Give the backbone structure.
Amino acid sequence: MNTSGIDIAAFITAMLAAGFVAAVPLLLASLGEAVAEKSGSLNLGIEGMMLAGAFFGFLAAYSTGSAVWGTLAGIGTGVVAGLLFAFLTVTLQVDQTLVGIAITILGAGLTAFLYRDIFGRENPSADVALWHVHIPLVQDIPVIGPAVSGQPVLFYVAYLLVPVFAFLLNRTRFGLEVRAVGEHPFAADASGVNVARVRYIAMIIAGGMAGFAGAYLSVTDLRLFQVGMTVGLGFIGLAIAMVGAWNPYRIAITAVAFGLLRSLGNGLQILGVDIRTEFITMLPYIGIMVALVLLAGRTALPSALGVPYVRGRR
Amino acid sequence: MNKSVRFGIAAAALTLSLQVLSLVPAFAQDAELSQIAVVTPGSKTNQGWDQQAADALMAVAEANGLEGVVAENGGYDDITPLLKDLGAGGANLIICHASGYQTVCPEFAAESGIPVAVIENEAAIAEGLVSDIETQAQEVAYLAGMLAAMSTKTGTVGVVVSGEPPTWNFMTVGFAEGVKAANPDAKLLYSVIGEAAYDDAAGAKRVTEQQIAANADVIFGMGDGASFGMLQAIEDHNAANPDSQVHFIDVIGDKEAEHGDALLTSVLFDYSGIYQQMVDDLKAGTFGKQYTMDVKNGGVRLLDLPDDAAQEIKDALEKAEKEIVDGTITVSAVGDAEGLKAKLAELFPQ
């Protein structure tokens, strides 16, 4: 390991900041996915929804010069994609796996086509102003303070959504209905819950969050769009929702752990630690797989996950 | 029908089939050249690896009155269906523009008789069917390394790559040797974003930020789409720290128009020369050889240095370029990841 010439405190701060920032799109996507899965919908279209949110979010931010409009456009795109998923799987009873894969392929193809068609050979950046929040006292804490403070406002919004989703799922009537519909849709229906309505709303939330995650990448983080820029983050988000057992706090911990493992891997490479690069870059993925294996048998999938509900048919 | 008659028919059919199969390559090469195609793994507008090939192919097609076809975003999996589509569409030459296509394309050529060109696979060369493209970009990367070593104020330069394909590895080693030659005390940081992370702009941004935090003030980035993330990290840093500017050395394409403030130079690839040579060889019936892009034939070169670059640096690079061409300086050609690691450990022991 070679640390000569490196300010270790600043280096660790950068590593922590990179981990926390990398976790944000995963956190947003997996929070939404948790709601969808809890309601019985396995949203394999999450990657396509993220990509679509990233593209339309960037397009709006580029056109208006506003990060707010960009983010709203990304969320709106995700909502539309979520509605499409719900219409096909809930109303038309099409297989969820097929619809999810189709939406992912559609998202990748459509965004590549539109980006090329609109921007041609250009790869422009969106000239948007981002509001960075400096938290008094916190920013003065050595090492960790500068990593947590001074981030764009949506960074904090993402982490604040964790207790909001926990409240939504565990302390509201809607949350109870979501869980009931995902476990026993027939019983929920018998007790007066409109299964289709709940699954529609859950998919609107999931789609909106996936779109938000994509827009966070393209508008807040990078201020640019690249074809295929989500590089599988949606699917990682799906795995994180499962590893986190659909609990928003556990999901947040898993997403942050993934982000930190990734930045730790980068840090180890920079310090010249003598470990094969392939192993270092695999670190976060190995972490997810180990967690999935350790949790196997301890967490039960929602009983009705992936199963279409038809009233009167068991 | 008795046994001997059946045997005779079968033998005749087998002989006929073998003759037809043996004629396929000759037929393909003799066929009138009307369409040339390139398969790129990524986007044809990424101002990098894919765009340079796509642009060169279209330019050569136009210059020769041929139809040019670019099949972009081919990915890194089996592209056989795509190759079959191109063949069915009338392609007389398919350039397989990724080292990941080294196996599938020669197999397709043998099966279909349509000539292909592969990247960095000398062993696949077959007369009339398969040619190999070698990019000796390590020589220009050596010059880029010298430039980085002579430009750094912190004494630390970084290399960020989106994978470890042979093309990136060749350049990394060349760059490292250039750094060492110009400044033996300089420190070099090396980071891989991920396996085939060519479009991972966000990951590239994070890695670059961490290298900057580790004191690197010149970043040599090989990323394709991911390069935009590296530039974003550098431009954000420069905006927030006017007194400690970081510079970027790009590869393959020219991003000067959009990112001139952060860009120190770029290792430019120009495929048009060898693509033209391939068209000429196909017409002459001499296709099936190795084509090399190097400093000598201008296939690879450095983007013009910024106007404010010190004369001392310009002179040193000019001298080194001449010495590369006349053979006084020999740059190592290391394409495999293990060899690369060994070379970096030898040049920059921890």
